[in-house]
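Hello,

I think I submitted the adenosine monophosphate job twice by accident. Can you confirm which output corresponds to this input? Input:
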Amino acid sequence: MLGLAGLPLGLQFTFLDPAADACAAAVGRHLEAAYTDPDALQELARTCERVTYEFENVPVQAAAELAHSVPVYPPPRALEVAQDRLREKQFFRSLGIPTAEFAAVDSRQDLEAAVAHVGLPAVLKTRRMGYDGKGQWVLRAPDDLEEAWEALTGNSPLAAPCVDAASGALLAEALVPFRRELSVLAARDTSGEVVCYPVVENHHEGGLLRLSLAPVPGLDPGLEELAHTYVRRALEALQYVGVLCLELFEVDGQLLANEMAPRVHNSGHWTLEGACTSQFANHVRAVAGLPLGSPQPRGWCAMVNLIGFRPDPAAVLRIPGTSFHWYGKAVRPGRKVGHVTVCADRPEQVAERLEQLRRHGVPLPERAEAGLFGR
Ligand code: AMP
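Support: Only one job matched these inputs. Its output is below.
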């Protein structure tokens, strides 16, 4: 999608992707190699004027090395902070961005003290390599600690062992009784200009993003402004270039930062049709040293992820204001293989169109049926 956004600007792309079936190969040259492959990195440095990434587990070392020869945006420091949940939370706090209570857990002995600090219920998370809800365990009672420890440090058949947990690098966080999950995307260009997209409401199931609504129905304008202030602080602190996503919990009329993604984000896919300039176009513009475009919404929009499921595109496209995006990936349970955007002039119209989508078999989160836009 970054490549598609860059082609009309006359840009050409080389994609480093270890996957043989990289979907980006359709819009540029594909280097099939590991992210750390020295020859591939050298080839990027030799042939590219700018380098960016859209996967947050790209090894920091590879990005930092490339940055000696070619501008790498967003700056590798953003990757470094975002890859470690502890550093990330400390970073937010250092900028005056509130978070849930948290405590580092470096050993089994630390766990009781950490949980005493954050209180129960809590979430125990691996510090690294967690995504889409993986590498997390909810603690509700003191008896859960042992099982969670076993699961996250790889000794349990109940959960896939998590890469870094063997070294004991975990984080305990208070479980936030949030009203809803929000995210805010913003782009910063090489001259320091910033544009902020409207705040988005996100619905997850099984740790995966299912649905985003933009702009958030009924959000207090004060919270919208606060979200923009927080994301701007993060952009400035990192001297960031590109699109950054900040994920937030709305709780008791407050915002708590959960995590950030130093890249274009799934909760910004709605911008392809729903905003004047998409997150992809603005990311590419920022990285290429071009001016940013307007982040204004064109109306009301919902983005529905297609997870392990391919609906009939014709049925989807018959619904007015609806777009179908297919990533060309093999369909597997739990895999994001495409998304649908539903746009309209009025929130109720989006709700009606979502309902039509559901009738065509596209699964929507439970709460979507309660008329999300009607609140
Ligand atoms: P994360 O990988 O941190 O984005 O977490 C995945 C999902 O788990 C989030 O989108 C939330 O739904 C939930 N979650 C994570 N941390 C917390 C928390 N401290 N309190 C409540 N829910 C959480």
